[in-house]
Write a structure and sequence with these properties.
The chain is of the alpha/beta class. It has helices spanning 37-52, 69-72, 78-81, 102-115, 147-153, 170-185, 189-208, 219-225, 231-235, 270-274, 299-315, 333-341, 350-355, 372-375, 383-396; strands at residues 13-20, 61-65, 93-96, 121-129, 132-135, 138-144, 257-266, 282-291, 324-327, 410-417, 421-429. It has a domain at 13-154 and 254-274: Thiolase/Chalcone synthase (Peroxisomal Thiolase, Chain A, domain 1), CATH 3.40.47.10. Helix 4 packs across helix 15 (383-396) and helix 11 packs across helix 12 (333-341). The radius of gyration is 20 Å and the shape is globular.
Amino acid sequence: MNQTKVNKYLRSVSIIGVGCTPFMYTVDNEETNGLTEGELFGYAALKAMEDAGVNPQDVDFYFHGEASPLNGSNYLTPNIQIANWFGMKGKASIHHSEACCTGYYAIEEAVNAVASGKYNCVLSGCVEFGDGVCIPEHPYKREKMTMERFLKTTAWLYDRTYTRSMMAGQELIYDDAAEWYKRTRGITDEEMDDTLNWMCINNRRNASKNPLAIERHTYEEIAKEKGFDNVMDYMRSPYNPRMGDFLRASGLELKCDGAAAVIVCATDMVDKYMGNKSHKPIEVLGVGCAALEASNPHFEVRATEEAVRQVYEVTGVKPEEIDLFYANDFIITSHLISAEIAGYLPYGEGWKYICEGRTAYDGDKPINTNGGRTSFGHAHAASGLADLYEAVKQMRGEAGEGQVKFEPKTAMLRGYGGAQNICTYIIRTID
């Protein structure tokens, strides 16, 4: 694929505040049913401002991300309609949408705006009602978004002139990544199955320690409830059926509702904005991006390789310097293949690290410490910033029961979205 030359930022930009809602099924709960997009986005935005020590008057511009505004907001310009909820009426803003990669591109949008020198302090937030669809006649009323109905909307992702007709079903596409890994690393079908299952088990263990996660019931607990003495016996049972040659039901996203936000400012102005806040700012060292639509063989693999190449080249960071790794794994194969492509896990050995529990929050190579898309939940656009929220909390030592067992300084986040875009960035704590 074509390669892009990425240049360094014109000035350093740092993360000074983060906010995130619980990931939830709003329609199913009397307390949250009827929650508006403005309220959900505003919750995350105000939390991020509080965390940063700024108020709405300090913020120069905001970005609004939503993967599926036709379902979620029923607005042509959803960024403008929500400003009153977090005190930014009259502030300029932009809406953007990059499918499930929206929350990862959200950080690049904010950093570029400050690095250019145009703005000094920017808010970037994302929101999604992934489990509830807006009733057109009533913008604030929602009904359940079934998976069948959701999958019909994915037709919007592709250039239907030629690509859609070449698409396989979702399960077969991501079986491709498992088949590719198995073949190139020389492991057996059984070892691949064990690896996929352990990724799900580890994700759920991580989520069980996170109060914002939508599912905190571990697979060990579920297996025991179903009468299994061994968790892997449960994972291989009809309770966890195969969806293709490799992928099982546990390896699919838990689509839900949520929002998350981040505040960034010029690094040399941190003291001005953060005031008496004691936490250290976290610098965004660089971003790499790539895209390959789904008619390309091994599209996720190839686009990840290019985005990873870019971010290492522009930052000068080496794989061995990465302490934490996050990957949008709405299909569970993603965090194995991307971690190896990034060099965070050694080529051909990553599956062993996973099966040995080393990629869980309390291991030496933690991945998706919040539980990822299969356990923390997948609120499409919001998921990328939820990962950033978790990474920042870990790097500050504020992750509670799910805190990793060492002091992380540098993290890589790899976003991935439909149609098929990749955004990879590296962040580092400033001493």
